[in-house]
Amino acid sequence: MTAQISTYESLGIRPFINARGTITTLGGSIMPPQVVEAMVEASRQFIPLIELHERVGQRIASLTKNEGAYVCAGAASGMTLAGAACMTKDNVEAIQRLPDTAGLANEFVISLVDPHYFIHQGFELGGGKLVKVGNREKVTDEDYAGGICDRTAGVIFFLGSQPLDQLPGIIAVAHAHELPVIVDAAAQLPPRSYLTDLTGMGADLVVFSGGKGLCGPQSSGLIIGRADLIQACALNSNPHSGVGRSMKVGKEEIMGLLAAIELFMEQDEEAVIADWTQRCLTIGAVADDFEGVDSVYSPPGVCKFPPVSPMQQLRFTDRAFITGLEVQKHLKEGSPSIEAGASKESIGFQPQTLQAGEAEIIARRLREILSAAQNASETNGRP
After folding, report:
1. Higher pLDDT, 378 or 134
2. Exposed, middle or buried, 190 (CB in 10 Å: 0-12/13-18/19+)?
3. Residue 1 resides in a domain
4. What is the pLDDT of residues 192-240, one digit of tens each?
5. Measured by CB atoms within 10 angstroms of the end CB, which terminus of the chain is less buried, N or C?
6. Cα–Cα nearest to 138, from 168, 119, 154, 158
7. Are 222 and 200 in contact, with CB atoms under 8 Å apart?
8. Cα–Cα distance between 177 and 161 in angstroms, integer?
9. How confident is the model at residue 8 (pLDDT cuts 50, 70, 90)?
10. How far apart are CA 46 and CA 251, in angstroms?
11. Are 293 and 330 in a shared domain?
12. What CATH number does the domain containing 148 carry?
């Protein structure tokens, strides 16, 4: 019997096991069946899209204990809309003429610690001007304060690239000038508490990806925060005629993200993290069987994206008979194909995007690859 060919394979695209994480270019995350079902159900009827945005926003705000919430077209879209909202507020005339910002405060103090230039472009798309502070390694409260002037519309904080314990000081600096703080927290879920705690600390708008830790549609995102600024985000976005008109979120993605958030709020977070830890240990145990290969386990709370996820590495010493890059190549080219991040000295596995049973598959493939390399080394007389 001929094996059934998947939709992707019919296009000549080879699916893979994702051990690198919720990376946009690798497809984000896998949606639970309930999310897919919600999207399919939403596709079967017509609804007033503005009203749907409002009702879903109210539901998410209630779930997450925030003043307001808005479903956007991914985290990058959310940052663009947040910037536009800080410039225009609910001024319809100002919304309609962006990126013309004549008479508006339009500068954003933004740190250089995060290299994602497309976030910078998003603020500039709406007519914003960036005041870049700090450097690639760090930024201080004083750097932020020095960038503020009477043309400042808001202050940007990159959670993950910047430590959480720096956020209260940045909020204090901004609020002393009555300026809003926008937090980019795209890949910072879980922990679930961030959906409540960041705005509880005083952040005015916080932006998350819908297709990463929330396991919602990849083309969705979430903005939470102050009710007036959330309303301004909506007015600047689709289906209103603002700078975000092109950033459409369909009824299917809106309902899919709502379902994903409802599941996320109900899940046993400790059990999820324990499962991720077990996946790491399953993979790490492979190192016990091979000389020159060490298991390096990073527990929850050490990694930045997301902060509660553990990480498993295999590190190859001078006694090893293979490199991390060679193992990576074998994993990718093998069956099933497996994506993992690597350097010459090590290969790393992120458990968040692994599905049930895939850690065991990775461990089996690693043993096959390392055994073959060991045998080849012995055959060639290598010590």
Report:
1. 134
2. buried
3. no
4. 999 999 999 999 999 999 999 999 999 999 999 999 999 999 999 999 9
5. N
6. 158
7. no
8. 24
9. very high
10. 9
11. yes
12. 3.40.640.10
